[in-house]
Design goal:
CATH architecture of the largest domain: 3-Layer(aba) Sandwich
Largest sheet: 7 strands, mixed
CATH class of the largest domain: Alpha Beta
Strand content: 5-15%
Number of strands: 12
Shape: globular
Number of domains: 2
Helix content: 25-40%
Order of helices and strands: HHHEHEHEHEHEHEEHHHHEEHEEHHEH
CATH topology of the largest domain: Aspartate Aminotransferase, domain 2
Bound molecules: pyridoxal-5'-phosphate
CATH superfamily of the largest domain: Type I PLP-dependent aspartate aminotransferase-like (Major domain)
Distance between the termini: 49 Å
Number of helices: 16
């Protein structure tokens, strides 16, 4: 029963559930307060002793943030979630909570470039070894994760969008006692819930589809009560990269329409894929979708393609009227990112340079504009660029 939980409640229904406070508000208030006070010495003492867990200080706890975290946990069918100031804060705070010097990380190739820089420039100098492997190695090499503390996964991976059979990977990981962490920003819980395939921890850059409006930078980690408790105990308070109440409120707004937006992104991406496949200018399309791997039930609007030798990518990008040039993705607006430009971002240490991305690759984020208008724009610019 894809898309429904044990009680037969769909994700859309879960996300549409009203907040339901005493005033009948459908949205939670924004608790724009740094601290929360106590009515008596006894209440304060109980809270500080851990006998109660009401809000105390917004660096660690805030009711608006908690409302977002509860929705994310439901969406991923998890016990708990914790919000962060960015996707990178979610990634770094998770890895630093579970790793120590001497540990080994096995990471999938073509990992998000700033995650790669975090591994190379921050984890490695602290004595944590990181190795990189193609998706096939994670699936087929039964002993790849021997002596590995943590497997860092993306499915699909960034830019080239290679999907992973998560059930295969987690079976190997369990045998070797390796913790599995996945970045699920691309699929969202609408199209993939990795915890159901045995993954231990799910991370999102909520800046992308979960926000959906290109107005927020945020992150979230979803997992078991025990794993989230460890992050709440250690890296959330001590690194302090907390999610702000206003951002949490925007993310709740985003979650309300996540299902509808993802289905629209999917339909428009499908229209592009079907038509791109008939174009001589397009050599290869990287766009996993429903059932490419078990557990993946749909495709997002983020895909890439390799263009034929004669296509002038500069002319293509400049010829588009409805696609803007830019980084990021997952918003309402359509974007194009030529790999050659993207590869130069932040210079030397770039996972895409290391693992290889063809110079003739462009990434598209298909937004929520009318699909036929988007296609007409893209097709015209493509024709021009190859003339
Ligand atoms: C954007 C992105 C991130 C980082 O998220 P921020 O919110 O920008 O910190 C992590 N993973 C993937 C796959 C991303 O695309």
């Amino acid at each position: 029963m894809n898309g429904t939980d044990a009680m037969g409640v769909s994700l859309d229904t879960l996300m549409g559930t009203a907040y339901g406070d005493a005033a009948g508000s459908v949205m939670p208030p924004i608790y724009q307060s740094s601290l929360f006070t106590f009515g008596s010495y006894q209440e304060f003492e109980d809270r500080m002793a851990g006998r109660t867990d009401t809000a105390l200080y917004t660096r660690v706890q805030n009711p608006t943030v908690a409302a977002f975290e509860a929705m994310m946990a439901k969406a991923e069918r998890a016990e708990a979630a914790v919000g962060f100031a960015s996707g990178m804060a979610a990634i770094s705070s998770t890895l630093l909570a579970f790793l120590k010097p001497g540990d080994r990380v096995a990471c999938v190739e073509h990992v998000y470039p700033d995650a790669y820089r975090f591994f190379e420039r921050m984890l490695r100098p602290f004595g944590i070894d990181v190795s990189y492997h193609p998706v096939e190695a994670f699936e087929d090499e039964a002993d790849l994760l021997r002596d590995v503390t943590l497997a860092y996964l993306e499915s699909p991976s960034s830019v080239v969008f290679r999907p992973l059979n998560l059930a295969k990977v987690t079976a190997h990981a369990r045998r070797h006692g390796a913790l599995t962490v996945i970045d699920n920003s691309w699929a969202t819980p609408v199209f993939q819930r990795p915890l159901e395939s045995g993954v231990d921890i799910v991370i999102h850059s909520a800046s992308k589809y979960i926000s959906g409006h290109s107005d927020t930078v945020a992150g979230v980690v979803v997992s078991s009560q025990a794993h989230i408790a460890k992050i709440r105990d250690l890296t959330l308070p001590l690194l302090g990269a907390k999610l702000a109440p206003f951002e949490a409120w925007l993310l709740i707004r985003g979650l309300r329409t996540l299902g509808a937006r993802m289905r629209q992104h999917e339909a428009s991406a499908q229209l592009f894929i079907d038509r791109l496949a008939t174009r001589p200018e397009v050599l290869k399309i990287n766009a996993p979708g429903a059932n490419t791997v078990p557990g993946l039930t749909g495709r997002s609007g983020l895909l890439s393609m390799e263009l034929a030798h004669g296509v002038d990518i500069r002319r293509l990008a400049d010829g588009l009227k409805l696609f803007s040039l830019g980084v990021s993705w997952g918003g309402f607006e359509s974007l194009i990112l030529p790999a050659e430009v993207g590869l130069r971002q932040a210079g030397e240490q770039n996972s895409m340079q290391r693992f290889g991305v063809p110079a003739n690759l462009v990434r598209l984020s298909i937004g929520l504009e009318e699909a036929e208008e988007l296609w007409a724009d893209f097709a015209a610019a493509l024709t021009e660029s190859a003339a």
